[in-house]
Automatic annotation (TrEMBL):
Known function: Poorly processive, error-prone DNA polymerase involved in untargeted mutagenesis. Copies undamaged DNA at stalled replication forks, which arise in vivo from mismatched or misaligned primer ends. These misaligned primers can be extended by PolIV. Exhibits no 3'-5' exonuclease (proofreading) activity. May be involved in translesional synthesis, in conjunction with the beta clamp from PolIII.
EC number of the protein: 2.7.7.7
Organism from which the protein derives: Methylobacterium phyllosphaerae
Keywords: DNA damage, DNA repair, Plasmid, SOS mutagenesis, SOS response
Protein name according to UniProt: DNA-directed DNA polymerase
GO molecular function: damaged DNA binding; DNA-directed DNA polymerase activity
Domain UmuC as annotated: residue spans: 5-189
Family assignment from sequence similarity: Belongs to the DNA polymerase type-Y family.
Length: 426
């Protein structure tokens, strides 16, 4: 059976989520900022038209946004994540196998769909997603994931196609591969692009026609796979089951500089609580934590410092209390006064399934009592919202002066009952 994949991608996804709940945003420029309202990470076509570039710092474009009537929002990840889940539920009605590639992109297996019906199905998919969720999408179809990704790029950048491009159609394929530059190929970064240009590759067709052995020699096995994928020979299948997580990190930039030990301990304990939540969700544990914090290179008039330390646990754990205690121990171990720290985090690698991990002979943890306590903690936070119950060392959520800044965040319409839209009677 000939493999066929579709890649469906939400258009300016974060901005589209904001527009779903505020119809007044339909034709005005909209941008969404990164954590701590740092820089632009999502832009509508109208925002791009007034000159706002991806990654532009907010403090530099503030006046431009005011002059041009750009609506600006802080990141609202609770809303975006929930809207992404709703969009993927629609996808599952159209395909038995999907791979959620990112928060706004998913691959669908369309191998069972007859060639003559693929374009119509993709158009129906776009229309259904928009009607049911309000999120506009574009769909690219190809015989490999790389070609589906390329088709999606074509659909997004050429509005006259109606949001769908099908590269399984030989005529459509032949038309586009000679017109798209190599830099638009999935996985081709700046370094790879320079190598391809040195070989005289000016289009996707030129990359496709490379000798696979030469591509492997120049770009390793990744380059060889790329050539085959562009020829319609699948090398990458759908990952319908997410691979087991090997590592995990919780890092945050502070909304204001941290200069005292107590605040840093609170921040790292809060990060440890979030880490424990992630690990328990997947049944994993860790027996070591890397705790780090550093100053900002932008504070040029202040002394600079970047420090990290590894804290080893007696055995693998996902217990928030155990992780928070280890994190605060790591902070005390390397803390020095006299610095203004801008960011801190916890990183762990070599995660293992908790149930099959080796137990400690000396100083082992009481997993039975700790497990029941964590079940109760997670149940409370699921029912009353994340942060409803936290370790005392992590501080009360509303009192965290260092916490990420979201001054322009919209309501979390779909996940917080106290932030639901209110309809006023006339």
């Amino acid at each position: 059976m000939e493999r066929t994949y579709a890649l469906s991608d939400g258009n300016s996804f974060y901005c589209s989520c904001e527009r779903v709940f505020d119809p007044k945003l339909a034709r005005v420029p909209v941008i969404v900022l990164s954590n701590n309202d740092g820089c632009a990470i999502a832009r509508t076509a109208e925002a791009k038209a007034v000159g706002i570039k991806m990654g532009d710092p907010w403090f530099k474009i503030r006046q431009l946004c005011r002059d041009q009537g750009v609506r600006v929002y802080s990141s609202n990840y609770a809303l975006y994540g929930d809207m992404s889940a709703r969009v993927n539920e629609v996808y599952r009605r159209f395909s038995p196998r999907i791979e959620v590639y990112s928060i706004d992109e998913s691959f669908l297996d369309l191998s069972d769909v007859r060639p003559a019906e693929r374009f119509e199905l993709a158009s129906d998919l776009r229309g259904t997603v928009h009607r049911w969720t309000g999120v506009p999408t574009c769909v690219g179809i190809g015989s490999t994931k790389t070609l589906a990704k390329l088709a999606n790029h074509i659909a997004k950048t050429h509005p006259d196609l109606g949001g769908v491009c099908d590269l399984t159609d030989p005529q459509v394929y032949d038309h586009w591969v000679v017109r798209i530059p190599p830099g638009e190929i999935w996985g081709v970064g700046a370094s790879t692009l320079r190598k391809l240009e040195a070989l005289g590759c000016d289009s996707v067709a030129d990359v496709r026609d490379l000798d696979p052995r030469a591509a492997r020699k120049l770009l390793t096995v990744v380059g060889e796979r790329l050539v085959y994928e562009l020829r319609g020979i699948p090398c990458l299948d759908l990952e319908t089951v997410a691979p087991t997580r090997k590592g995990c990190a919780v890092t945050r930039s502070f909304s204001e500089r941290v200069e005292d030990l107590a605040t840093m301990e609170q921040a790292l304990a809060a990060h440890a609580a979030r880490l424990g939540e992630k690990l328990r969700r997947e049944g994993l544990g860790t027996d070591h934590l890397t705790v780090f914090f550093h100053t900002s290179e932008h504070d040029r008039d202040r002394p600079q410092r970047s420090i990290s330390t590894v804290v080893t646990l007696p055995e693998a754990s996902s217990d928030t209390l155990v992780l928070a205690k280890a994190a605060t121990f790591g902070v005390r171990k390397v803390w020095r006064d006299g610095y203004r720290y801008s960011k801190a985090g916890i990183v762990t690698t070599d995660l293992m399934p908790l149930e099959s991990s080796q137990r400690a002979l000396i100083g082992g943890l009481d997993r039975e009592i700790g497990g029941r306590l964590m079940e109760a903690l997670d149940a409370c936070n699921r029912r009353f919202g994340r942060g409803a119950v936290v370790p005392a060392s992590a501080g009360w959520t509303k009192d965290r002066t260092w916490s990420t800044k979201f001054e322009l965040r919209s309501p979390r319409y779909t996940t917080r009952i106290d932030e639901l839209p209110v309809v006023m009677a006339a």
